Amino acid sequence: MTTTLTDPATGPGTVRRGPLRGTAWLVVRQHRSTLYGVLALVALGAAGILYLRGEMADTLHAAGWPGKDLPSQLQLGQRYSYLVLALGALPVLLGVFVGAPLIASDQEQGTAQLVTTQSVPRHRWLIAKLSLGYGLALTTGLVLSLLHTWWWRPYRSVFPATWLDASVFDNTGPVLPAFCLFLTAAGITIGTLLRRVMLSMVVTLAFSVVANVVWGEFRNSLGTSHRFTYPLNGEFPARHQDVQQLDNWVGGADGTLYGWGTCAEATEAARNACLKEKGIVDNVVEYLAYDQMPGMQWTGAGILLAATALLTVCVVWRVARRPL
Known about the structure:
Blueprint: H1 22-30, H2 32-62, H3 78-109, H4 111-116, H5 122-152, H6 166-169, H7 175-194, H8 197-218, E1 226-231, E2 244-252, E3 257-259, H9 268-278, E4 280-288, H10 293-321
Antiparallel strand pairs: 1-4, 2-3, 2-4
């Protein structure tokens, strides 16, 4: 059999042309199913956001908004609830299905040792792996966060959730991509340490649930709270309608604070006597303002990225120092 010069070259000596070659091409090809799945998820999420935003815009336009007053909260339907649930679950899915198996699968099957004992340096293999995992997490988080922010920001006054609610705060701005990177890094770290795919995925899922609970408790601490007072029987100040209330008290003229239920007596006369005795004259509200949102989001994202960097250092140290 003869081979002409026009036949495509094949075999182990073939040099691959294109943007991806060598170890990077090998890693992408190895994880192509995961890559296609994540890209399909991004496309589906983007299409859902675009469709629901267009539907909302049409509804508001038909109702004459913003020229006419609408109910304080617009009913977005069950589909928006599904979308919010999916966005909230996105970092967890990336940690479990992208991060946990990324290195653990090669360790469990022995391909990591095979690759790194050939002509591929260990650090090059690790860089290719981490680039794929973090690239998928960052791209997914950025695209969906930008689209959700683009939808929410001009229509936030009619959304059913406040700006500090997890469905908004965690899914807009830099928080979503930072959280995607953090849980992906956590999955990679857990997989590297446990060296078993299924066990790593289960542990990553448990870690992600705990991380979400801790993040929910920590979110309000990202900004410095403020206080304002208004007369005990007065109207709530209109200029503070957009604030996120954290706590409420009643206060005396001397600045002493009492719990909200203080002087909640059975009769009006007993209540007035209690108020007079304690000198209570004001309502006191502790709050976070909407203009604090960007600073709080970037502070939270910075903490998550620092944790991501720390986990990455742990993975690099573990791969460099211990047998694969």
